[in-house]
Amino acid sequence: MSDIRAILTDIEGTTSSIDFVKDVLFPYARTHLPAYVETHADTPEVQHWLHEAAKEAGFVEASRTEIIDLLVRWIDEDRKSTALKALQGMIWREGYESGAYVSHMYPEVAARLRAWHEQGLALYVYSSGSVPAQKLLFGYSENGDLTPLFSGYFDTQTGHKREVDSYRRIAEAIGLPPAQVLFLSDIREELDAARTAGMRTTQLVRPPQPLSENGHPAVADFDAIAP
Ligand SMILES: CSCCC(=O)C(=O)COP(=O)(O)O
Ligand SMILES: [Mg+2]
Question: Which bound ligand lies closest to the C-alpha atom of 185?
Fold first, then answer.
């Protein structure tokens, strides 16, 4: 993998546990979303994302309560809605800044990211969490502020994670040939799309899942990756 110049990493299931997202972030957003929307509904940003959520749901007309109920339902479904993820990011900021939680990082991730950064590799994030939510997650990690290690962030405003063109757009934005970018994720369909776009891929199969390859090089942790 010596021609790798950049690493693009997923978050949930890759740098951080699915349990942290499902058991900490999502419940926090679900609890605080109704009050947050009610108290911030007059801000342009919240108005924009409420409108986008209603459009995504096909609502012609909907009350604020109906949209709030829709968003809460989407949280329960883990729907990768760009509008929901944007609103979640705003709510999660309050949780991080209040000290309600810090983000989970698997034990080897921070040290490995630092090593890759010192090695001269450019590090990027691609997650269905919004870019602000990504910056918060790496800014308030249990290993401190990791954001200085990253050169850029991508979310589903670039494109959805199972779409090939999303990875073509990311490689173009990074300014590298796709073959010089290594994409790390836990989800096979995301890795398939990245490889079709020409990227190198490695699947994170975190214990207790048994390590097995299904079309991509598979590792149990970042220490087993040699870019
Ligand atoms: C950026 S923290 C919240 C992550 C999130 O909402 C999510 O769905 C992450 O999914 P992914 O595997 O795309 O990182
Ligand atoms: Mg993931």
Answer: 2
